[in-house]
Amino acid sequence: MLTLDLHPIFRNNRDIELALREIIFRAARTGVSTVEIIPGKGTGQLKKRVLAFLAQKHIRKLYVRVETDATNSGRVLVHFT
After folding, report:
1. What is the model's pTM?
2. What gap in Å lies between CA 1 and CA 63, rounded to an integer?
3. Domains: count for the chain
4. Which of 75, 77, 59 is nearest to 67 (CA)?
């Protein structure tokens, strides 16, 4: 499993986009089964942004499903297999 914690870069839109792209493409390329993205709880805006990124058609083709953790709203799991 790969993990991406967005806390250190949450204020920089460009860095968030690059970090998301990098981890999703790396997981798809290397055959990792799950990516854990940690946007944090906060106001929920960063989580919405992550989910919108994952919903893009060209990104959606790379993974099987997205799971939002019912016990931890500050965590998103992206499954590749």
Report:
1. 0.91
2. 14
3. 1
4. 77
